[in-house]
Specification:
Blueprint (H helix, E strand, L loop, with lengths): L16 H16 L10 H7 L10 H4 L21 H14 L3 H27 L2 H13 L4 H5 L4 H23 L2 H17 L6 H9 L6 H25 L13 H19 L2 H8 L3 H23 L4 H14 L23 H18 L4 H23 L5 H11 L4 H14 L2 H14 L4 H13 L3 H14 L4 H13 L3 H14 L4 H13 L3 H14 L4 H13 L3 H14 L4 H13 L3 H14 L4 H17 L1
Helix pairs in contact: 1-5, 1-6, 4-5, 5-6, 5-8, 6-16, 6-17, 8-9, 8-10, 9-11, 10-11, 10-15, 12-14, 14-15, 15-16, 16-17, 18-19, 19-20, 19-21, 20-21, 21-22, 22-23, 23-24, 24-25, 25-26, 25-27, 26-27, 27-28, 27-29, 28-29, 29-30, 30-31
């Protein structure tokens, strides 16, 4: 049986920890640098761009008493209710520093990932007392292409945060246990709480501590007593969440269903093959070739059987540790088997691979360090080759996260039948103004899934933007028939009614939309527009201010408030509102035009003309600004 205190006969020497962290950070920054300027994609827009709560300090408290998709109206095919307050809080901090600059958010991801790589170095050093093994494990983990999804894409930040706080808790726990330091022990418990508030899978932290303890010379009975507060905190979290928070993804009883265990065993093997060659690079290299996929599965199966034999027959402690870490990291998948189709997209399901990848990287490092005992040059060359290949795969794959159109096409290359992604691709083309391609994607979805309400919603948006209001109305009504809970469908139907001068129908549909999504600033603003059109300024002002309370940075609300105040003779307040709008968006043509009109009506032609000219420079085709300038110059000449 191998002595885990010395895995190889190599002189280690001391490696300064700060040097290790700086090395890992620079490595991560180097390979992910070409992802920094990638746009917000997929759920990034929901969790960051459209998330009111992270942008306003007044809403910080609400982050802690509701699920992360709190602002999204309930849909039959909508989002699960995850409780991830620290994820939202981290976005809020990023927004405070960077506003909506995606590079800043990604820099935070890179920093956390490098910290997690460093913590893996500390953990492996603690368990095996082998710095070379620890450094190689951390380096491989920092570069492993299976982590691209969690680092280059912003929405899975919960995995990064969970891992950071969980590993920190484990390391501080053993430091406190070995030194009998009560303060450090309390810090470990606090880090455990932060890990759970990042992602509920961190409830498995006591299991990871127990797994590490198997390889350390510690009093196991005493350690079990030290784990009791962890377990009590976990039980308290279960009770608190089930009692006060309407969040799912935390069931216990269904975990032990036979079919879930069977599904988990199958996924254990599938995920192991994806750690050998992640799905994105595999499809880029071989496409969806069945022979290549089968070959990879056979290779991974042979490796897994070999590892199990090493663990069970030869009692190889390093392999046992790796398998425990890998399997414990995958345990959260059991809880979603059967309730969530995590295999709907093979790339998206790599969200679950972040911690298991640590076990795989320790295994890879262990194999090379063992090889180095007899073949040092060969092991060194292999290590260099692995680092080069990993780096190349990461830097190449980062380009697939450039923007929504590139990302969705990449996902569809991997999973051509994933209709949710195809609908999102259609919406991305629609936002870009490519209506024909957007409609083609929607029709492709409906050809295989006739009940896809979101594809009908997309078609309604396309025809409304094209000016075909009657066809848009047909598709919106079809959407509502399939999904009566879609606030956006009612809102868009109301817009069609408004544009068709059926104001009463528009009003009723806006009210239905607000009933489904009472916090929607979009619906409030649209209804306020209708009320202004009908001359109901006071109710419109109330709605605009309510929308502004929900989203202080809402540009349209501030402009409409300015318009209403100007119409009712409150010129100074109107001026302040327009100026506030320009502070939010200095290049807002609409705000400039309205503020210019306010100055023009007050006889201040110089300031009015200056604003309209600036608006015209930003939008050269603005006929209204051109006409305003001509009229103002004529009036100014007469005044002289």
């Amino acid at each position: 049986m191998m002595n885990t205190a010395r895995l190889v006969d190599l002189k280690n020497g001391k490696i300064p920890k700060i040097s290790v962290f700086l090395l890992l950070f620079l490595v991560c920054l180097a390979v992910y640098s070409n992802a920094l300027n990638n746009d917000f994609i997929f759920e990034d827009r929901l969790l960051i761009v459209e998330n009111t709560y992270i942008k306003d300090p007044r809403f910080i408290g609400r982050i802690f008493n509701t699920d992360i998709f709190h602002f999204h109206p309930a849909e039959p095919t909508g989002f699960s209710k995850y409780y991830r307050p620290l994820q939202s809080l981290s976005y809020s901090l990023d927004y405070f520093i960077w506003q909506l600059n995606p590079a800043g958010f990604r820099l935070t991801n890179i920093l956390i990932h490098s910290l997690n790589s460093f913590l893996l170095f500390l953990l492996v050093s603690l368990v095996f007392k082998e710095n070379i093994l620890a450094l190689l494990s951390a380096l491989f983990f920092s570069l492993h292409p299976a982590n691209i999804f969690n680092v280059a894409y912003l929405s899975p930040r919960s995995s990064l945060l969970e891992t950071f706080f969980m590993l920190s808790s484990i390391i501080v726990f053993f430091s406190s246990f070995l030194r009998q330091n009560k303060t450090a022990y309390l810090a470990a418990l606090f880090l455990f709480i932060l890990a759970v508030l990042s992602r509920e899978a961190a409830l498995l932290t006591p299991l990871f501590i127990a797994a590490c303890a198997l390889f350390l010379k510690v009093d196991k009975k005493k350690l079990a007593a030290y784990l009791i507060p962890y377990i009590l905190l976990a039980l308290f979290y279960f009770w608190l969440r089930s009692r006060f928070l309407a969040c799912d993804k935390l069931g216990i009883t269904p975990v032990f269903l036979f079919q879930r265990i069977g599904g988990f065993i199958m996924l254990v093997q599938r995920y192991f093959s994806e750690l050998i060659l992640p799905v994105g690079p595999a499809v880029s290299l071989f496409g969806n070739n069945l022979i290549a996929g089968l070959s990879l599965f056979i290779v991974s199966s042979v490796v897994m059987v070999y590892l199990l034999s090493r663990a069970l027959i030869f009692r190889d402690k390093a392999v046992i540790f790796v398998l425990l870490f890998y399997l414990a990291g995958l345990l959260p998948v059991i809880n979603v088997l059967g309730s969530t189709n995590i295999v709907g997209s093979r790339l998206l399901s790599e969200h679950y691979l972040y911690i298991p990848a640590m076990g795989f990287c320790v295994l890879l490092a262990y194999a090379l360090v063992s090889l180095a005992r007899g073949f040092l040059k060969t092991a060194s060359l292999l290590a260099g080759l692995i680092i080069f290949i990993f780096s190349l795969l990461v830097m190449t794959s980062n380009t697939h996260y450039k923007d929504e159109i590139v990302f969705y096409n990449y996902l569809l290359k991997i999973d051509p039948g994933y209709n949710l992604i195809r609908t999102n691709l259609g919406n991305a083309y629609y936002k870009k103004g490519d209506f024909s391609e957007a409609a083609r994607q929607a029709q492709l979805v409906l050809s295989s899934e006739p009940g896809a309400w979101d594809a009908y919603l997309l078609l309604g948006n396309i025809y409304r933007a094209s000016g075909d209001l009657s066809r848009a109305e047909v598709y919106y009504k079809k959407t509502i028939l399939l999904n009566p809970a879609s606030a956006l469908a009612f809102n868009n139907l109301a817009l069609v009614c408004k544009e068709s001068n059926r104001n009463k129908e528009a009003y009723e549909n806006f009210k239905k939309a607000l009933g489904l999504d009472p916090e929607s600033a979009l619906v409030m603003n649209n209804l306020a527009d209708l009320l202004i059109k009908e001359g109901s300024d006071d109710p419109a002002l109330v709605l605009c201010r309510q929308a502004l309370r929900m989203e202080r940075g809402n540009l349209h609300s501030r402009i409409m408030i300015g318009v209403i105040l100007a119409q009712t003779g409150h010129f100074k307040e109107a001026e302040i509102s327009f100026q506030d709008a320009l502070e939010i968006k200095p290049d807002s043509v609409e705000a400039m035009r309205n503020l210019g009109t306010l100055y023009g009506n007050a006889g201040d032609f110089d300031r009015a003309i200056a604003l309209w000219r600036k608006a015209l420079s930003l939008n050269p085709g603005d006929a209204e600004a051109q006409q305003n300038i001509k009229e103002a110059e004529m009036l100014k000449g007469r005044a002289k």
